[in-house]
C-alpha cells in the first residue's frame, strides 16, 4: 500500500516553531567524539565509518541541473512537465512512495481517471482518487505511464509531488549552498575519496526507502529515513519512549498535525539534544513524535525510527541520496575549520 509522508505538517508545525519553541542555542554540526568508556557486555559495536567518495567522479552521465525554488517552508520544488503542459512546480519527496498531482491541476489537464487508491499517511489510512500520467518530465528525465494520486492543492501545498516511484535507481543531489538540485544515474560505491569533507553513509533499502542504521539519537540507536518532503523530523513512539525526557532541550508539548489527506492527528513536539549519523553530530533537533502508520508499514513500529526532515538536512553543504547504490553522501559545510574534524576525516579516508 502506498505510503505518503512529508509535507503534511507545514502549517501546524511552523506555528509551533514561530511561537518560540526553538529559542535557545542554534543548530550546530560537528564530529562525534569517540566514547572511551568500556562497552556494556551486550553492546553491539558500531560499524566503521564509511569510506569517503568524491562527488565529481561517481556518475558516468551528466545529471540534470535545475534551480531550486524556495516555498514558504524549507522544502524544495522543481519544474515538471506533464506531457506537453507545464512546467509546474513539484515538490521532491523521498518520504512518499507515490507521485501526486493536485486536484486542481488534474482537472485543468483533464487527465484520465484511474480507480481510487488506499494510502497510508501520518494520520492513518485514507482512500484518494488517482489518474494516469502519460509522461512526466523533469530536466532530461522522463517517466512514462505513471499512475499518480490526487490531493487538493490546499493540503498538498504545491502543484504536485515527485515520489519514490519516479526516483527509483536514481541519484538525487541537493546542493544547499548553490541552491541547485541534480537528478542523475546511480553511482558505484566504494571509490577512493579526494573530498575530505564528504562522509558517505551506507544504507539498507526497504520498499524503495533508504534506511541509515548507523545512527543514534541522544545515545539511542535509531533507524533514519531521509524525508525531503518534510520540514521537521518525525519520530515514532518507540523512539520517544527510549529517550530520557530530562535530557530534552524543551519539555514535550502536544500539537495537532494536519495530514496531506486533510485528516488530523495528535503528536508530541520537542527538541532533542543530539542526532549522530556515523561520526557527525547534529545538535538541537526539533522533532514531533507519534504512532504513525508509515512506520508500521515499514516494519519499524516497535523499532526506534525517525524521518529526518529538511530543517536538519540544510545543516549540510550538500546531501546526495543514491537509491541505486544505497548510500547517502553528506558534505560538511564550507569553511568548516575544526582541525580535529578534518584530521578524523583524513584518517578514515586513508583506511
Keywords:
single chain, 351 residues, mainly beta, eleven-stranded mixed sheet, six-stranded antiparallel sheet, 25 strands, globular, disordered C terminus
Mean pLDDT: 73
**Main sheet makeup:** 11 strands, mixed
Q: What gap, in angstroms, lies between the N and C termini?
A: 42 Å
Shape: globular
β-strand amount: 35-45%
Please give the share of residues in helix. Answer: 10-25%
Question: Helix/strand-derived class?
Answer: mainly beta
Low-confidence stretches: 6-29, 31-72, 345-351
What does the radius of gyration come to?
Answer: 20 Å
Task: Please tally the β strands and state the result.
Answer: 25
Number of helices: 7
Would you kindly provide a written description of the structure presented here, covering whatever features stand out?
It is a single chain. It contains 7 helices and 25 strands. The chain is mostly beta strands. The strands form 3 sheets. Strands 1, 14, 15, 16, 17, 18, 19, 20, 21, 22 and 23 form an 11-stranded mixed beta sheet that branches. The chain has a 6-stranded antiparallel beta sheet with strand order 2-12-11-24-25-13, with no helix packed on it. A hairpin with a 2-residue loop joins strand 16 and strand 17. The C terminus is likely disordered.
